[in-house]
Specification:
- There is one protein chain.
- With 410 residues, the chain is an alpha+beta fold.
- Helix content is 15%, strand content 36%.
- It has seven helices and 29 strands.
Length: 410
């Protein structure tokens, strides 16, 4: 990428702002192959590589192609992108033993053990190296270095981030100090938030907090699709956390399919909670309510049926033949709706071991007893699943699918 294109594409973060440069930095990779002048002003060869001192952030040597060999020599003071120069002559460089691309000398031979063994690293070795976070995860690639030749310094390291780690497109010039070199690894000494303006970070954190609160509120809400067999037995607590009793049953209005009451059994008493219950919320092992909402158990009538009774009923066709059994009821305490039933049918209707989601109207009473108000053909399009592998009842896509199915069957 040309320098002018790179500069136009760079994303400069406020917390990693580049220091003011008295000298114009250039892309180190763009220097490779350029002619190099000797101390006497005569060409000595072409630049093959730069040796970077990763500790002090300077160019320690220029690797020059001299004839058929490579020679490492310090840059001359005052070198520039228009005039690369070394502090030696062609005659002196020809006398150096030199090396090849595959036999680079160990520039760290005099360094102590440990990470200092990679203090001096060739530029070519670091181009396209993996950039890792402090946990060792690959978060991008090193694309280039920006250097100032007049003082042989490294100004910036240029990287391209993985978009899952930092979501801005393009190459980014980072201050040299923001990168650590450990062994062969290049480590980002910062986190993605350091790359964003403070206002953007604040907005992102606010969004995260709002999402967290929304998730917590959703978890506390009773507006969830759950199995009646799981609801029966839920603990009922008041706002102070004191256990009032347990949900013993649900009373269903057979005419509308709505949940009228939750029957709460406590030692020595039985009361009901009208549904939906204002202000009630979900807890880990049940629900939390205002105990003042509990009222006396209404007198038995023909309008309401207990969910526990519906769970024990068999289904019969219009010829009064047994065709299946109700295995569960899917309810929503938040909206006080009996959503649909889960049935298991005889093998002549549905394969053994399979359960079927059916509309509530199929399990309401007809002539004083539960019945299937339609035939086998009405199960076409119904959700059929393995009894050992229930679907995620409360997943938005599943709920939308069931809404569509129930609407068609009404």
């Amino acid at each position: 990428m040309p320098l002018h294109s790179l500069i136009a594409a760079l994303a400069f973060a406020s917390l990693l702002a580049l220091p003011a440069q008295a000298q114009q930095p250039v892309q180190a990779s763009q220097l490779l192959g350029k002619p190099v002048a000797g101390a006497d002003g005569k060409d000595v060869g072409a630049l093959h590589d730069l040796i970077i001192d990763t500790r002090d952030g300077r160019i320690s040597h220029a690797v020059v192609i001299v004839g058929m060999k490579l020679v490492a020599v310090p840059l001359a003071a005052g070198a520039s992108k228009d005039r690369l120069a070394v502090a030696s002559t062609l005659q002196a460089l020809r006398k150096e033993p030199g090396f090849s691309e595959t036999t680079y000398p160990d520039f760290n031979a005099a360094e102590p053990e440990g990470d200092a063994k990679v203090r001096y690293r060739p530029l070519r070795q670091m181009l396209d190296a993996d950039l890792k976070d402090q946990g060792g995860k690959d978060v991008g690639d090193v694309k280039d270095f920006l250097v100032t030749l007049e003082d042989a310094k490294v100004a910036n390291i240029v990287v391209e981030f993985d978009r899952t780690w930092y979501d801005k497109e393009g190459w980014v010039a980072l201050p040299r100090q923001s990168i650590l070199h450990k062994g062969d690894d290049v480590i980002a000494n910062f986190v993605p938030d350091n790359m964003r303006p403070a206002s953007e970070v604040a907005r992102a954190k606010l969004r995260e907090e709002e999402m967290r609160k929304a998730a917590e509120a959703a978890a506390r809400s009773l507006d969830h699709e759950v199995r009646a067999t799981e609801v029966l037995g839920w603990k009922v607590r008041d706002a102070q956390g004191t256990e009032i009793g347990r949900i013993e049953d649900l009373l269903v209005d057979l005419g509308s399919g709505r949940l009228a009451f939750a029957v709460v059994a406590a030692p020595g008493s039985q009361r009901v909670l009208p549904l939906p219950a204002a202000g009630a919320s979900r807890a880990a092992d049940g629900i939390v309510i205002d105990r003042q909402q509990l009222v006396a158990l209404p007198a038995a009538d023909n309008r309401h049926r207990r969910a526990s009774q519906l769970l024990k009923t068999d289904l019969r066709d219009h010829q009064d033949e047994h065709v299946g059994d109700v295995r569960d009821l899917i309810v929503n305490l938040g909206t006080a709706r009996m959503r649909y039933a889960i049935a298991q049918f005889v093998p002549t209707w549905v394969a053994p071991g399979k359960l079927v989601a059916i509309p509530m109207r199929e399990v309401r009473e007809a002539g004083g007893r539960p019945a299937m108000r339609s035939g086998l053909h009405q199960l076409q399009g119904a959700l059929i699943f393995d009894a050992q592998t229930w679907p995620a009842l409360d997943h938005p896509q599943y709920r939308a699918y069931m809404d569509q199915y129930l609407q068609k069957t009404n």
